[in-house]
Design goal:
The protein is an alpha/beta fold. The protein is built from twelve helices and 20 strands. A hairpin with a 2-residue loop joins strand 7 and strand 8. The structure holds a DNA duplex.
Length: 435
DNA sequence: GCGATCAGTT
DNA sequence: CACAACTGATCGC
């Protein structure tokens, strides 16, 4: 359908260069072991983890970009055949291991694609990334920003990961005779687990594939696959449920800890003797605040066995705001648009961008069709999924029961428009290996 | 068997 | 109810 000179986190044929921000499944959809459409640029850590995730993948397609360096890509204009130069720099996104943002400079101007990212003011790594970004930009203005808007709503307020990690430690140490299970994905939250392991001087059990990942990432001693060595286990999030915890508790007293940026809790934890002691609130990036549902944005009891802790690898609203304020891009597009409560980032941040936009109308246009924005000779396509398709899809599914199949094509079509971007039509140039 | 997509889960 | 991220079933070839 569409094709472009470069693609970020999108994998259909037709681009001249492909960029992967990180290895989470929702960014690699379309990448298969047999994928072959061009050189794939990623960070060194992502490249290292790549074979684990895609065992059959042709590694000769990978190009490593080291952080903080400008790389030059010799590309060609699809229409004129003229050479086009695109510069790119990878910058630490402080999301999961290997996650980077990409800063592009070309005839289309200066563009930053954040991928998923966390922008903690208190974190040393985020400060380095910040300097890298500002040095790269110098006095140049950012023309467009593709933003991780996952929690782009003032409702989402949570503390730094450091603070949340301390909460996890407190929960564990206040249950000295319990087994502990922590729900994690296949990649991400390693720093949390490592911190818990260090502070409590205890190994953490992980499943075998996860141990491989840990070893590749350089965590050699803190993790094990032997259950007998520890009472703390990290388990896949999809197997973390109330039933799981109930089952475990028939064997041994066990509590579950779910680190998540979302207020998971249904039951309101009413103050008193917090099970994990005084909440350390120094150095928080975002203030704890009452949620509309009355729950606190701190570790809390979800049910008899389960605690939730606001440990997030996405930026909270205050951090997103700070980021946009720092960069003041001429235009912003959210890269996540699946939530029914999605709000176009310009609604909040329009005042930081040159133009005071009529955000709601722009927003309508943005997601009601694949809006194509022309910037000089280059077209940028925003590939966000509509809110409505999601809701309607669900409703219809319930009603449907047997009849009506015709809408399915439309819905699945909309589903395809998820994350990632492509820039402009093109042919296929010869490639100079960058590494 | 393989890739793409859908359904469903926390 | 929300999310991001994931698994497993099913479809088409």
């Amino acid at each position: 359908m569409e094709s472009g000179i470069i693609s970020v986190d999108r994998w259909s044929q037709g681009s001249q260069a492909y960029f992967l921000t990180h290895l989470h499944a929702d960014h690699t959809r379309g990448l298969t072991p047999t994928w072959k459409w061009g050189p794939l640029f990623c960070s060194r850590i992502t490249a290292k983890l790549f074979p684990l995730k895609f065992p059959q993948f042709k590694l000769s397609l990978l190009r490593v970009l080291d952080l903080g360096h400008w790389y030059t890509l010799p590309l060609f204009s699809p229409s004129s055949g003229q050479p086009i130069t695109v510069h790119v720099m990878a910058i630490d996104a402080h999301h999961c291991p290997g996650a980077v943002m990409y800063l592009f400079r070309g005839e289309f101007g200066c563009m930053l694609y954040t991928g998923d990212f966390r922008w903690e003011r208190t974190s040393r790594r985020a400060q380095i990334a910040r300097n890298m970004l500002l040095n790269a930009l110098k006095q140049e203005k950012l023309d467009s920003l593709y933003l991780d808007n996952t929690y782009c709503n003032p409702l989402y307020s949570f503390p730094s990961r450091e603070v949340a990690a301390r909460q996890v430690v407190n929960i564990i140490s206040s249950h000295p005779n319990h087994d502990i299970v922590i729900g994690v994905d296949s990649l991400g939250k390693e720093d949390l687990l490592h911190y818990v392991s260090q502070v409590l001087k205890i190994k953490i059990w992980v499943w075998p594939e996860r141990l491989q990942t840990m070893h590749l990432l350089g965590f050699q001693d803190n993790f094990t696959t032997k259950t007998s060595l520890t009472r703390v286990r990290a388990i896949p999030r999809y197997s973390f449920s109330i039933e799981t915890l109930e089952g475990l508790n028939m064997m041994r007293p066990t509590i579950g800890i779910m680190p998540s940026g979302l207020p998971w809790a249904k039951e309101i934890f009413k103050g008193k003797g917090s099970a994990f002691g005084p909440s350390p609130s120094h150095g928080v990036t975002c203030t704890n605040r009452k949620k509309p549902n009355g729950s606190l944005a701190g570790g809390q009891i979800y049910n008899q066995y389960i605690y939730t802790v606001p440990y997030s690898e996405h930026s909270c609203f205050a951090e997103i705001k700070e980021f946009v304020q720092l960069l003041q891009p001429a235009s912003i597009k959210g890269i996540v648009a699946s939530s029914p409560s999605y709000v176009e980032p310009l609604y909040y941040f329009g005042k930081f961008c040159g133009k005071k936009q009529e955000s709601s109308m722009l927003y309508q246009k943005l997601w009601s069709e694949e809006r194509v924005e022309r910037v000089e000779t280059i077209q940028i396509k925003s590939a966000t999924k509509t809110t409505n398709s999601n809701l309607q899809g669900k409703k219809r599914r319930k009603k449907q029961v047997g009849l009506l199949v015709s809408h399915v094509n439309r819905v699945s079509l909309l589903r395809r428009l998820r994350r990632g971007i492509k820039i402009t039509d093109t042919d296929f140039p010869a490639y100079e290996d960058n590494i």
